[in-house]
Amino acid sequence: MSAPQSPVDWGEVPDPSAIGKPRREFDGWRVLRIVVCTFGLLSLAFWGYLAWPFPMPGILFMIGAPVFAALVWYLFRSEASPIETDVVGKTIVEVALVVAAGACWVSIGHPVVGLVFILVAALSGVVQFRREAR
C-alpha cells in the first residue's frame, strides 16, 4: 500500500524507509587516500623502530613521530580541523608530511619505496584538492 499522493505529484513515490538515509557509493580515490595516510603513519613508526636505538629513543620516535604527524594533519589539514586554513596552508602541511614519510624510507635505505610513496601520495593529493575546489 502506498502513501496518499497529491494529484499534483506526478513522479514516483519514494520509498519511505530510504528518506533521510544517505546513499553510500564506493569511492576508490577515498580508499586510496586512506591507504596513503595509513601507510605514511606506519612509515614514520617503522622509521622510529629502525633508525633509533631501542628501548628509549626508539620507542619515543616510534610512537611520537606518527602521533605528531596525525596531530598536525588534524589541526591544519583535516575536514574537521579546528583551525581554519586556506588552500596554500593545507598544501604546505600535506607536502611536508608526505615528504617526511618518504624521507623516512630513504633514510633507512629504501629510496624506491619512498619515491613510489611520494608519487602515489601526490596523485592522491591532487585528486583530493581538485575535489575540494569544486
TrEMBL record:
UniProt keyword Transmembrane helix, yes or no: yes
Pfam family, one: DUF2568
Keywords, in A-Z order: Membrane, Transmembrane, Transmembrane helix
Transmembrane segments: 31-52, 58-76, 88-108
Superkingdom of the organism of origin: Bacteria
Transmembrane helix in keyword set: yes
Name this protein carries in UniProt: Apolipoprotein N-acyltransferase
Organism placement in taxonomy: Bacteria, Bacillati, Actinomycetota, Actinomycetes, Micrococcales
